[in-house]
Amino acid sequence: MTTKSEALFERAKKHIPGGVNSPVRAFGSVGGTPRFIESAKGARIRDVDGNEYIDYVCSWGPAILGHSHPEVIEAVKKACEQGLTYGAPTEREVEMAELLSKLVPAMEVSRLVSSGTEAVMSALRVARGFTGRDKIIKFKGNYHGHSDGLLVKAGSAALTTAVPDSAGVPVDYSKHTLVASYNDKGSVEALFEANRGQIAAVVVEPVAANMGVVAPKDDFLPFLRKITKEEGALLIFDEVITGFRLGLGGASEFYQVTPDLLTFGKIIGGGMPVGAYGGKREIMDMVSPVGPVYQAGTLSGNPIATAAGLTTLRILKNDPSIYDRLANKAKRLEDTVRSLKEDEGYNITCNRVGSLLSIFFCEKEVTDYDSALSCDTKKYTDYFWHMIKSGIYVAPSQFEAMFLSDAHTEKDVDDTIAAIKEFFVSKQQ
Ligand SMILES: *Cc1c(COP(=O)(O)O)cnc(C)c1O
After folding, report:
1. How many CB atoms lie within 10 A of CB 338?
2. Which atom of ligand 1 has the smallest separation from the CA of 239?
3. Which of 11, 44, 147, 380 is the most exposed place for a label (fewest CB within 10 A)?
4. pLDDT under 50: residue ranges of the chain
5. Could you list the residue range(s) of the whole structural domain that residue 53 is in?
6. Within this chain, do residues 22 and 146 fall inside the same structural domain, yes or no?
7. Ligand 1 within 6 A of 114 CB?
């Protein structure tokens, strides 16, 4: 039954655009009524009609420990009793910056903000301030939040001016954004060649997770490190998803490639709104009040948010085997999909890096944006609704990742595997 969700959705649509505060929640690509959530605990979320689901969205990543982890909730409660916000520095912010530089050595100096969008937007401003250059390179199919200059995809010729992906973005902003193809070294070289001495930074999702999960090819990240260094540009890893997900040190540790700047979000807030950007000291010395690059935030480093974030990061740090547990569960899902493909011949494939994975409904391997777009999104829609009916909440879009948490049990994974297999059997008829 979904009566209450339906009624809420109708009410929501009257006063909220599309009834939601972030577009993907509207179920636009799968149709139907989004489930309005009432509570979440461990690996499960519960909607207002009382339906329970095994949750593989996990708030799009933050819930790596599972929902409502008792220690995190306790830390937040305790912090609340001491006041919600002061607009003055706190000890927890210092602890957070110290912990970040310990876990992620490339993060010598960091600044807290309140979202991933802000983190990437600010990192780019710093890169431009530091290099004195305006242009940046991003990759088709990589998402870096909704700031103006980043809502850009390639025009028909990637070497010409990029066109904004959203109305309301002046071409004057987006013209500084050059778009290359993920995993395509030649496309990056061509952009550097055509814009010599003008490119401030290359910003990349070290594992792409916003066109479905796409791993970097072996030499792709080292290549980006090398070419940026040669060209006097900065390399920015957008680790909003990969940070504390691929391991404590994120993608820079996982791939042993050290960027100049990094951005974090999602897990770093443990369920509260937190983002962070940072990197080499000499670059971060550009940031106000030390340097000339302005960036600020009334609620940045908020005491409740840092309580949730610090507690989450400390739990991860004290139990690093969590990453093996997460990856093993994800691998069982991957193996299921591989066997459906290889043994049964279905048009399905799976990309997985650690506990980040996507099941793609397509014949070929997915290595970039164009191959991702070859997926059968209608098939994904059928799969999505089959999973919902089986009590399993996966992303309402083909082009998102599946997130595991430490709270998912082997039994949860067994049930999920059974539901995936059942989908293909029922499709056979
Ligand atoms: C989610 C995401 C962002 C934006 O973070 P918000 O907190 O939603 O603003 C930026 N970069 C990547 C890689 C993301 O996945």
Report:
1. 15
2. 13
3. 11
4. 154-160, 429
5. 3-68+320-427
6. no
7. no
Residue 281 exposed, middle or buried by CB count within 10 Å (0-12, 13-18, 19+): exposed
Distance in angstroms between the alpha carbons of the first and the last residue of the chain:
27
Last residue of a domain, which of 281, 298, 318?
A: 318
Pocket test for ligand 1, best of 113, 114, 139, 143 (most atoms within 8 A of CB): 143
How many independent structural domains does the chain possess? 2
Same domain, residue pair 148 and 294: yes
Q: Which residues pair with 234 in a beta bridge?
A: 201
Residues 231-263: pLDDT tens digits? 999 999 999 999 999 999 999 999 999 999 999
Q: What is the pLDDT of residues 116-134, one digit of tens each?
A: 999 999 999 999 999 999 9
Q: Which of 318, 348, 381 is the last residue of a domain?
A: 318
Name residues whose C-beta falls within 8 Å of residue 246's C-beta, 6 or more positions apart in sequence: 207, 253, 254, 323, 353, 354, 356
| CA atoms in the 13 A half-sphere facing the CB of 160 | 4
For residues 15 and 89, state if they share a domain: no
- CATH code where residue 182 lies: 3.40.640.10
> Considering only CA atoms, which residue is closest to atom 14 of ligand 1?
240
Residue pair 19/34 in contact by the 8 Å Cβ criterion: yes
Contact between 117 and 108 (Cβ < 8 Å): no
Q: Which CATH number do you get for residue 352?
A: 3.90.1150.10
CA–centroid distance, residue 161 to ligand 1 (Å): 24
Q: Tell me which residues are annotated as active site.
A: 143, 238, 266
Dist. CA 243 → ligand 1 center (Å)? 11
Length of the chain: 429
Q: Which atom of ligand 1 is nearest to the CA of 266?
A: 7
Decide: 277 in ligand 1 pocket, CB within 6 A. no
Contact 201, 279 (CB under 8 A): no
**For residue 210, how far is its CA from the centre of ligand 1 (angstroms)?**
9
Instruction: For ligand 1, say whether the CB of 210 is within 6 Å of any of its atoms.
Output: yes
